[in-house]
Amino acid sequence: MKKSLLALAFGTLGLGIAEFVMMGILPDVAANLHISIEQAGHFISAYALGVCCGAPALILARRFPLKHILLALVSVVIAGNLFATAASGYWTLLSARFISGLNIWTTNDNALYTAGLGLSNITKVRKRPMVVISGILGTVTAVWLYNNFVGWLNILNCTLPPVGMIVVLGYFCHKEEYEKWDVIPRQVNWFAIAGVLIGAAVANLVPWGIASVNGMVIAAVCYLVGELVEWKKKK
Q1: In this predicted structure, what is the pLDDT of residue 108?
Q2: How far apart are CA 193 and CA 223, in angstroms?
Q3: Residue 123: which of 134, 136, 112 has the closest Cα?
Q4: The pTM is what?
Q5: SS percent in the chain: helix, strand, coil, step 5
Q6: Which of 91, 61, 85, 59 is closest to 73 using CA atoms?
Q7: Count of helices and strands (H, E) across the chain
Q8: Which residues are within 8 A (CB) of 87 and not within 5 positions of it... i.e. 6 or more apart?
C-alpha cells in the first residue's frame, strides 16, 4: 500500500476523533472541569465556530503554494489538540477547541464536492449545479437536525455501517484495479446503492438482532448479487 494512503487514512482518523470525540466524553469533561454539561457543550460550539472562521481564510491563503497551506493546516490541528490536551480550565479548553476547528473546513469542502460529484454521476447533470444543490440540501437538513439530533444519530448509526461494508467489499472485489492507482471508469453501481438503502432500512426497522450488523449483512448480499450479475454479463 502506498505511504500516501496510510498518511491519508491516519490523518482522517485523527481529524474524525478530534471532531467527534468531545460528544462522547462531554459528561466526563464537565465533571473534570467542575462545570455543567450545558457549559461543556460550548466546547462543541467553539469547534464549529472555528470551522466557520477557517473557511474564509482560504481567500487570504490562495496565493501560497498548496503544499505550504497543507503543512500550515496540519500544524494548526496538531497545535490545537496539544493545547486541548494540556488545558486545565474552561477558557483554555474553549480556546483550544476553536483553534482545532480552524482547519476542518477543508474536509467539509471535500464532503460537499464529493456529494455534488456523486449526484452528478447519478443524474448526469453538470457537477457545478449539483454542488450548489448539495450545499442547499445540507443546510436545510442541518436546520432539521438541530431539533432532531438524537433521532438523527440513531439513523446514522444504522446507515453508516452498510456504507462501510460496500466500500470494503468494493475494494477487495476490485483490489487489482485500485492498486494500479489509475482512474477507474465505472458506471453507477445500482446494486451498491440498493445495498445501502435496503441495509439502512432493515437496520432501522427490524427489531431483532444488532441493527448495524443487520444492515451490513443486507448491504453485503446486495453488493455480491450485483457482482454476480456483472460476472455473468462478462461471460
Answers
A1: 60
A2: 9
A3: 134
A4: 0.53
A5: 85, 0, 15
A6: 61
A7: 13, 0
A8: 93, 95, 96
Grid cell locating 164: 462501510
pLDDT on residue 6: 75
Helix (H) or strand (E) holding 176: helix 175-179
Interaxial angle between packed helices 66-86 and 3-24, expressed in degrees from 0 to 180 and rounded to the nearest 10: 40
Cα separations in angstroms, 63 against 66, 103, 110, 206: 9, 17, 20, 53
CA 231 to chain centre: 32
| DSSP code per residue over 58-122 | HHHHTTS-HHHHHHHHHHHHHHHHHHHHH--SHHHHHHHHHHHHTTTHHHHHHHHHHHHHHHHHH
202-213 pLDDT tens trace:
988 888 888 888
Rounded Cα–Cα distance for residues 66 and 84 (Å):
27
Taking only the tens place, the pLDDT of each residue in 118-163 is: 777 777 778 778 878 877 887 787 777 767 766 767 777 778 888 8
Residue at 181: amino acid letter: W
pLDDT digits (tens, 9 = 90+) for 19-62: 777 877 888 888 988 999 888 889 888 888 887 777 667 667 77
d(CA 131, CA 120): 8
